[in-house]
Amino acid sequence: IQSKTLIIQRISIGLFVIVFAAIWVEEWDKITSFITRAGSITLTLNIVMMIIGYYVAKFLATGIAQRKCIALESGLQNGTLAVFVSSQIFDDMVYMVPTAAYALIMFVTSIIFAFIVKKQ
């Protein structure tokens, strides 16, 4: 059962990378605009949320593994859902800029965080 789980995890990571790369290539002009317009504030928000999640978990959770998990989940808010909602509800692209920037930044910071805590 464990080998099947590992295969499924690798397939899901591979599919995510393919979809992410396709979006990155297709929407490069918009992505750079989103990051330059809203990148610093969304990066700050993401890192602050991960730090808050870690330290709140330090007082409420039982172990270091739970702290890491809660910090990661605090940083991984549902950016994809936010992008979808902002594009469907609002006709103006202004609402899409911060949500798309946050979605992109949260994936990058989460991957970096995961690599850091995996080595510890």
Q: Explain this structure to me?
A:
By secondary structure, the protein is mostly helical. Helix content is 88%, strand content 0%. It has five helices and no strands. The chain has helices spanning 2-26, 28-60, 64-75, 79-89, 96-119. It is globular, with a radius of gyration of 16 Å. The two termini are 27 Å apart.
Query: The biggest beta sheet, please?
Result: none
Give me the number of helical elements.
Answer: 5
Q: Report the C-alpha radius of gyration, rounded.
A: 16 Å
Structural class: mainly alpha
Topology of helices and strands:
Elements lengths: L1 H25 L1 H33 L3 H12 L3 H11 L6 H24 L1
Main features:
5 helices; 120 residues; mainly alpha
Short structural summary:
This protein has helices at 2-26, 28-60, 64-75, 79-89, 96-119.
